[in-house]
């Protein structure tokens, strides 16, 4: 009978492998269903952190399975498989372009930039009601959040290593230079841009509350507001606001029907306890509710004002995004130089003592180039000594193996050069 002897530690782990896997996927799905609202219009979800760690620790299949588990809550909530496809594509992109010496954050940044470019191309080709500023704002928020989560996964991977053979988690002893540098730069720059964006977004509700009070005061100050026709569209011009805002007077029992005329799906009366106020979609599809008299209200759409507000925030964060892009490009070039230096040094190490080096290669970094020069000098010196040693050994072997009559025949001539040493041998 064929028998397989597993290590003792693996015998302990294997019976619990599938239950632990199912339990882990359930926990990952539960945590991924939580949306951490950091600021109005900025949400975190921890799916990328989980499936990137699963990919690094357990391989491609585990990464894809975890990506599916983390995207299931979005499928239940939104009803679209787009999130699953995006998460799976993220894992495949990391598998294709991220080796052991490259961080997850760099690949994630360029992957999300590519997705944003495709979304922009689709916006140009297909008809859409989403404004350019809103689309760019959504892309920036996703790039920052995904890059920050990937950089956090890099920091965890730099500290912890899962030994699947022994079923243990141990500390990483040897750190990769390129991976460490990319992770630190990514988490520093992306973190700074994220903190700036969060600081600006935290004031969105306050600024919109002030704007709503100004709108209510402006409507109350209208000279002919008592003569406004119900269900008739008017335009409100305010001091300091370039674009006039549409509004309609209606009864309280016709809010939803009238709101559809303005493109509104939610209504805000200035109550801060509304939980939906932390969503960008809420503000884009919201109408102010301004009471007039009895059961009469005014619905006003601040859509253009909200877009202008987010455009202003976007202008503030774009320099940091440009800096993050330059930093990631610089990290790519730095990683390329590191790999080239490693290849040059490895080639020189593998060819040590084989031949005399006449053409000296160069390394991108000065320190590596100096080390390469010292290594080549030592190689050439070693080859020269080796050649001299081999030549002397061959001469000694020839003298030992030659007939005595041949040695005596040429003794006189050789003695002129060696003083009789050759004949004495």
TrEMBL record:
Keyword Amino-acid biosynthesis recorded: no
Keywords for the protein's UniProt record, in alphabetical order: Membrane, Transmembrane, Transmembrane helix
Parts of the chain that traverse the membrane: 16-37, 49-69, 75-95, 107-130, 183-201, 313-334
Domain of life, source organism: Bacteria
Protein name in the entry: MASE1 domain-containing protein
